[in-house]
Write a structure and sequence with these properties.
The chain is of the alpha/beta class. It is built from 22 helices and 22 strands.
Length: 790
């Protein structure tokens, strides 16, 4: 557990070192992020939040006394659903009604004098009733909407108008509909204030407003908003929710940059909602009055005619009294006639309601069946259910399409409820028909009895009973009309505006400079950090000793410091350099590790070309020679010889000529400027280098060299390209495998790992070449030792 903790700590320090080495990325990214944050703070419009509260009642209408008097209105819903009311408030139709009451069609903007606007129009302020001009739209003609129309004031009387946009919609304000679009609009024109501008796409007039005169040349622009665009803008910022789960108080919130506009919108929206609610309630009372008035108009003529007929009959026949028996019979007859009339009236009313239901006219506000004395709880409940379903349907249609499953379900329930209402009304009509038939039968019996009475008396009784019945019915309807008028006069909405709209706080909700700058700084530091982490994870090259130890079990011998590429003989030319000290350390480590063996032949190889294999061979040989040992360096890479870059060699003789021509050893060994160091270059490039190295003469050469030199260093070809190393491997006492810092791919070590793990190669050690101490955490401490080197 302690080891894991230490490894984690070292890994964390390694990441911190990587971040520190790329400090300039963090500095540049932080500056750019803060600059972007500054531009955002300055260019973003200040958005404020506004809110108001609205109370939803229990949907009771009118005064308590009127409710007791007028049972006709008892079918009103005894409760509301808050979700439905929120849907109605949020609906496009309700928002549209509010906007039509306001003058938001033209939005005015000003390009400020901020220095950012010298590049482009970034810092823009919306104006409301403060613009130096006012746009008078000709709504009877088409207009180009939802695009900026630039205005540049030239002087007090003239201005320059410019438009540059693509796919511009043409809008008809009479029908509030888009009529096609224009692909490209690009023009500029100079006009005078008060001069109407008119073409086939626009028609308006700019008037100077009574505000402080702006400076000439100042840039403004305005946007003619379509009603649909305004509705979408307000709906996108509108939030409606109850203050509590069970509460009937709604909190309406919106956001905007102009306080006066948003306050006016919220107040107008609530006022329109309350007004619509009262209007719907008044429609019920008005329909009741219309029905009663129509009945009274019919009865008024009948009553007048019946009284005139009775008066004429009495005058012509001089009839003053009716005997008691006749009175009793006629009284019964009058009662039956009244009952039959009531039944006929009920049946007429049932049929009237049934016709309204079938035609679908005003179902949610239909007159209650109790106008004619109907007391049917089932029918009343069905009307309640239908009204609730219609209200729910209205709430869903604000945001749902016709194909919405919930909307289809509600539509099905509405149709089912309507069918039930029709069935109940049909049953009531049939019941009324049966009752009427029974009353007619009883009347017929009494009339047959009265037929025996004197003709004049019978006619008199008929006229009296008819007149009395019409009079009672007329008085009944007059009473009900008075009650309905009282209810309508005292009708009131149950919705109430609790708090008018006001701004919440004094600071913007979208632009908080301190938070934005802090967030920009965090992002500015996170981007380079993420980039470094990503590149480190993507980079599959050797990064250091720990990285090498994670992918191979081959022992590590040492590192070669980073130096100038032009200094090939670094050990010979500058013995106090960091590179010379690196090879000195490698020599000492090698002698320490091989102290128990009499090693002579040292092979140096790598994975691919460019890893510094030859550089390490030459400088390690130089270091050994400088330590007093006789060293010979063999260039066995006869495919791509590079010794000529290090030593002035005679390319006519070398290893290939010794193996093929049998030249004496003295002729192929060449002296160098360094004492104790000889070299054998590759010589003429052969056709088959691998075949030559397999010859017995190679073994003979090494045997002779071991007798004359302390060390034989063989610079072999890279094992990733050719197979010569595997031929020479059997002659070597020590194998040095060179990898280059931030160059050698980790996957390249798979082949040498396989040889080492299968024990086909022995006494092999890893060397990291060209390691820059400034770019690795593991050897960062060596940066402090640079004054030891020259």
């Amino acid at each position: 557990m302690k080891k894991n903790k230490q490894e984690h700590e070292i890994d964390l320090k390694s990441w911190l070192f990587k971040f520190k080495s790329k400090w300039y990325l963090f500095a540049v990214s932080a500056v750019l992020a803060l600059a972007a944050g500054y531009v955002y703070v300055k260019s973003s419009p200040r958005i404020f939040q506004f809110q108001s509260t609205l109370l939803l009642g229990d949907q009771q209408t009118g005064s308590k006394k009127a409710q007791e008097l007028l049972e006709v209105l008892d079918v009103q819903s005894r409760g509301i659903k808050v979700e439905d009311e929120i849907g109605l408030l949020y609906s496009a139709e309700m928002v549209k009604q509010a906007l039509q009451k306001l003058n938001f069609t033209v939005a005015y903007y000003k390009v400020t004098d901020h220095w950012l606007n010298k590049v482009t129009d970034l810092v823009v302020e919306e104006q409301y009733k403060t613009a130096p001009y006012e746009v008078e739209l000709d709504t009877s003609r088409l207009q180009l909407v939802d695009i900026p129309i630039k205005v540049r004031l030239l002087d007090k009387n003239t201005y320059e108008l410019a438009i540059e946009a693509e796919n511009v919609p043409r809008y008809d304000f009479r029908s509030n509909a888009t009529v096609g679009s224009i692909p490209v609009v690009n023009f500029k024109k100079t006009l005078r204030f008060g001069e109407a501008y008119q073409d086939e796409n626009m028609s308006f007039t700019l008037q100077r407003a009574d505000v402080e005169d702006p400076q000439p040349g100042k840039a403004y622009f305005f946007v003619i908003n379509s009603l649909e665009n305004l509705v979408k803008q307000q709906q996108s910022s509108l939030e409606i929710a109850p203050i509590d789960r069970e509460a009937r108080v709604l909190v309406l919130k919106t956001k905007g940059s102009i306080p006066d506009k948003q306050v006016a919108f919220l107040n107008t929206l609530m006022a329109e909602y309350v007004a619509n609610d009262l209007k719907e309630k008044n429609q019920n009372g008005l329909k009741t009055l219309e029905f009663i008035d129509s009945q009274l108009a019919t009865l008024s003529d009948s009553l007048r005619q019946s009284k005139q007929a009775l008066s004429s009959f009495r005058s012509n026949n001089r009839i003053a009294n009716i005997n008691v028996q006749s009175n009793i019979s006629y009284e019964k007859l009058s009662q039956l006639e009244a009952e039959r009339a009531r039944l006929n009236t009920d049946r007429t009313y049932y049929a009237n309601i049934l016709d309204q239901v079938k035609n679908g006219n005003g179902i949610a506000q239909s007159v209650s069946p109790t106008v004619a004395g109907i007391q049917s709880p089932i029918l009343n409940n069905l009307f309640l259910q239908l009204a609730e379903l219609n209200q729910k349907k209205a709430g869903y249609r604000t945001n749902a399409t016709e194909d919405n499953p919930m909307l289809r379900k509600i539509e099905s329930e509405i149709n089912s409820t309507r069918t039930s209402i029709e069935a109940n009304l049909q049953n009531l009509i049939e019941s009324a028909d049966i009752s009427i038939a029974n009353v007619n039968e009883r009347i017929g019996k009494i009339e047959s009895t009265l037929a025996s009475l004197p003709e004049n008396e019978r006619k008199l009784m008929d006229l009296q009973s008819q007149s009395e019945f019409i009079d009672k019915k007329y008085d009944f309807l007059l009473e009900k009309r008075a009650e309905a008028a009282i209810a309508l006069a005292t009708n009131a909405t149950d919705k109430k505006i609790v708090d008018q709209a006001s701004m919440v706080g004094t600071t913007p909700v979208n632009v908080k400079p301190k938070m934005i700058y802090l967030l920009a700084l965090i992002i500015g530091l996170a981007i380079p950090a993420g980039f470094i982490v990503l590149m480190s994870n993507v980079d599959n090259t050797i990064q250091g000793k720990n990285d090498l130890g994670n992918i191979t079990n081959i022992p590590f011998l040492g590192v070669v410091a980073h130096g100038s590429k032009s200094d090939k003989l670094a050990v010979m030319n500058n013995q106090r350099s960091a590179i010379a000290e690196s090879f000195r350390s490698i020599r000492i480590n090698l002698q320490y590790l091989m102290a128990d063996s009499n090693f002579k032949v040292i092979g140096v190889t790598s994975s691919i070309s460019g890893e510094g294999k030859t550089f390490c061979s030459v400088n390690l040989s130089s270091e050994m020679a400088m330590s007093g040992k006789r060293v010979v360096l063999i260039e066995s890479d006869m495919r791509k010889p590079t010794f000529s870059k290090y030593f002035p060699v005679a390319e006519s003789v070398g290893l290939s000529s010794f193996l093929t021509q049998g030249l004496p050893l003295e002729e192929v060994v060449q002296k160098t400027t360094m004492e104790n160091l000889d070299i054998i270059p590759c010589g003429p490039i052969p056709d088959n280098a691998l075949h030559l190295l397999e010859l017995p003469k190679m073994q003979q050469l090494l045997t002779m060299l071991k007798d004359q030199y302390d060390y034989v260093v063989i610079d072999t070809p890279p094992i990733g390209y050719v197979s010569e190393y595997f031929v020479l491997m059997r002659h070597m006492d020590v194998n040095l495998y060179v990898v280059k810092h931030k160059y050698t791919n980790k996957d390249m070590l798979a082949q040498i790992n396989e040889l080492y793990n299968s024990k086909k190669v022995k006494d092999i050690y890893m060397i990291i070449n060209d390691l820059n101490y400034d770019k690795t955490y593991e050897y960062g401490y060596k940066k402090k030792a640079k004054y030891y080197y020259v």
